[in-house]
């Protein structure tokens, strides 16, 4: 079985970049944004914490800061409500102007058309009141794409149909594979930060069982 993210054994040094924040953030949230902007390699920077701790606010700030770099951004949320909330925060900010043609809210075809606020529909693509994905050439024009994709693997794991993908370890969620790497499970602050809380219970239990061979 291949070892995922084996290059993390010798990660590139990450340096927090000082930024002029757009939103009102606390010191911990500002540091998280600075670490995200300081990423100079493929390994992602992970932020986690309980509801109400400011994760979405921090992520939106990071998105707006990255927009200043003229980059393209894929935002993957755990639910439609979170994805819609992120969309709302981005388009309602008063500092970085985001054009309607720059941001796209990708919805599953199974989502009821009436489930989305009418004023958000202009950021979506649909046919006959059914949400669709636009043609690839149109999709590539957007600077920000917001979708519902990532989930807690203890609630809903990945559905993998390809046996080749299973053989290469993709039957385990991306988040779980990340935390199999020492820099994440050891809470290396160059790769992961907890906003005012310990490791998630499901993750802490998994790591404990793995460590003691249960």
TrEMBL record:
Example GO biological process: regulatory ncRNA-mediated post-transcriptional gene silencing
Pfam families per UniProt: AAA_11
InterPro entries (UniProt xref): DNA2/NAM7-like, DNA2/NAM7_AAA_11, P-loop_NTPase
Cellular component terms (Gene Ontology): cytosol; P granule
Domain DNA2/NAM7 helicase helicase: residue ranges: 25-110
MF annotations from Gene Ontology: helicase activity
Name of the protein: DNA2/NAM7 helicase helicase domain-containing protein
Organism of origin: Cannabis sativa
């Amino acid at each position: 079985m291949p070892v995922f993210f084996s290059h993390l054994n010798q990660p590139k040094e990450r340096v927090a970049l000082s930024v002029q924040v757009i939103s009102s953030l606390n010191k911990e949230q500002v540091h998280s944004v600075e670490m995200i902007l300081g990423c100079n390699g493929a390994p992602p920077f992970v932020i986690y914490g309980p509801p109400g701790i400011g994760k979405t606010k921090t992520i939106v700030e990071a998105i707006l800061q990255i927009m200043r770099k003229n980059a393209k951004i894929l935002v993957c949320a755990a639910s439609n409500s979170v994805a819609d909330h992120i969309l709302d925060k981005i388009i309602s900010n008063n500092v970085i102007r985001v054009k309607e043609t720059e941001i796209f809210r990708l919805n599953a075809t199974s989502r009821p058309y009436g489930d989305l606020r009418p004023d958000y529909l202009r950021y979506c693509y649909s046919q006959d009141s059914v949400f669709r994905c636009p043609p690839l050439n149109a999709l590539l024009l957007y600077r920000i794409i917001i979708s519902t994709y990532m989930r807690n693997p203890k609630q809903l794991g990945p559905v993998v149909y390809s046996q080749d993908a299973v053989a290469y370890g993709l039957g385990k969620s991306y988040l779980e594979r990340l935390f199999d790497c020492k820099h994440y499970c050891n809470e290396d602050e160059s790769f992961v930060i907890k906003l005012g809380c310990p490791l998630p219970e499901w993750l802490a239990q998994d790591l404990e069982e793995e460590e003691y061979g249960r």
